[in-house]
Amino acid sequence: MTTTDNTGATSTTTTTAPAPRTDIRFPSGFLWGSATAAYQIEGAAREDGRTPSIWDTFSHTPGKVANGDTGDVAVDHYHRWRDDVRLMADLGLTAYRFSVAWPRVQPTGRGPAVQRGLDFYRGLVDELLAHGIKPMVTLYHWDLPQELEGAGGWPERDTAYRFAEYAALVGEALGDRVESWVTLNEPWCSAFLGYGSGVHAPGRTDPAAALRAAHHLNLGHGLATQALRATLPARAGIGISLNPSVVRALTDAPDDLDARRRIDALANRVFTGPLLQGAYPADLIADTARVTDWSFVQDGDTASIHHPLDFLGLNYYTPAVVSGPRGVQDGPRLDGHGASAHSPWPGSDDVVFHHAPGERTAMNWPVDPTGLTDLLLDYTAQAPGVPLYVTENGAAYEDTVDAQGQVHDPERIRYLHAHLAAVHEAVRQGADVRGYFLWSLLDNFEWAYGYGKRFGAVYVDYATQARIPKSSAAWYSQVARTGGLPSAG
Ligand code: FCB
Question: Is the CB of 455 under 6 A from ligand 1?
Fold first, then answer.
């Protein structure tokens, strides 16, 4: 197949989906879920005491989000949540990962909780449980109360303390009915896209601030974990969702291998160092010495971050292929969720990202399920004994409604089939993977891309808010009900 990417370049592609197998069955009790995030679906931005988050401010700033889209209405989940839970139940899903909007629960980022905010999530959780769907709550999926950004945001140490306080409020309110807790979603994006490349809220482009933010997100995770442990019943599990970069070197040349090491440090080990080892990697500190002296890491911080995790959530979409600073960037920047003149890689902004050959999604992300097997096996080795969840995986395609009112998305079915086969392969090789959360249940607000990129298993007509399950939803439903992959992928 020959395709054109958005630089106008053509490339010859081959499909990467493995031949469908008929013998792929997942362990019993494996959770079949979908995932969403508050700002991407809820809407009701000014209702019931909710105040602006950094994403409200950012999306309302001209030029920041494609088409001027905002999450003001999104897919109106705040009002349609009962229908959305019914959709999941109809599909036979057994788990649902959603996030709590901090500015709905604690509008200024300080002080007591707003009961109406908590009531919304209590109602949602009760409805899920009534339908046999296990809730997994993410406390922070990028919607920092604007007031805290005004006080300095994640580059300020105090934000970590504020986050722990907020975590405790939600823990107190939902701890009797929610067993799975994710502190942060993809802290790499919060730190390096939010404060480095500026393609995400709050849109700052300060490499030193990005590294400070990364540390305070780590600290926030650690402090929130302690606060939740003090609040939640013993059966509750606490984890974090990372989006590790599966980084591959373009060649075995020393400068390409060094580029791989550098990006691995900035994308992955800046989090797993303190989380899993209790220290920041020495090479990361050396690589970023021109940017910061890391004096914001205080005595005892890494010990506060280094707590046993009950599980680790891994989000995977596509691997990264990097080389040393020779040649030219191959096409648009492939190192973040959007284009920016500013790099999200402090101290390593000369590393070049390359397009892997092969099929791509509508995000222009190469389809490569082998990266998911590699990732799960890598974390099995790095975090022995810690159960893993794929807390996000999925793909955007140019979905349209046909004359019969249906949405056929065979590419997404192929993508999901191949990636679930990749999860299974990791399980077969010993990874303790307990569940899979498809990103996403519904088409939604895809951050800097606005509503232009559709990731849902369920199509949303944004004019009417009608929900139309795509053919991939029927396919995934069959997977969830049978616990295995159908032979006709
Ligand atoms: C992840 C985000 C999620 C969604 C997917 C496509 O990085 O966590 O909200 O945007 O990418």
Answer: yes
